[in-house]
């Protein structure tokens, strides 16, 4: 295992291995490396197509991949639980976050495969959620740990995923059933737009080690992380309560721009960056490590898999009234 300052731990594989066979033979060792380091980048496998990636993922996660639900932007489905990365403008970064940390059930393990590395940028950065937690001022941590955080979404049909795409169901009754089963408050607007609110823990204990981790998307899905000109346009068209997504404190109070800026600064100080090379594989512990996607130029194709489902409230560090 190669470790360099500022970069993700890397495992170099001798070129020429059959990726599927290698994955089957090294599954336990690779999973142990993820447990030790939080994330591992495997270089040299030469992954080259979606079918091969799906087979590798299946060998690495005997429990199987889980479907993508509640995504805030669309993904292209490939096969067997393998998806494209989120549809997001190439010139806009995706800030640090834990995948689906706003969902009742989220993946404990993320798998990424690079079929085409971009010519410039596009790094999937990672940051240790334990170190991030320690670096956030104690008073901010206490409030979020006590109250949790709130995600408000508006499915307006124009920006981001539709509710049919997010929930995997089409009719209103099925949407409402999904929301009730997943602790999501919902309200239909007169024009048919769906608005939802879901309250989740912001700090959780790691399911294996019990360590406290900063685990949420408070900064990424905040109105203050949206490019200013885009935010102004969205507020003008949809109103401040109709943004595609926004985050609040668990009691519903707004989160100031200063706090969002501070969180992003902490993430930046703890980010590990390793530029993608075509054929790379990366496994990320989704509780221990946040991940991001930097702006890029040129074609970029990253295939994503999700595994090891966890329930947010099973890992909570604080009893939150009305959380379930």
UniProtKB/TrEMBL annotation:
Record carries keyword Iron: yes
Keywords for the protein's UniProt record, in alphabetical order: Antibiotic biosynthesis, Dioxygenase, Iron, Oxidoreductase
Pfam families the record matches: TauD
MF (Gene Ontology): dioxygenase activity
Domain of life: Bacteria
Cofactor(s) this protein cannot do without: Fe(2+)
Domain TauD/TfdA-like, residue spans: 17-304
Protein's name according to its UniProt entry: Alpha-ketoglutarate-dependent taurine dioxygenase
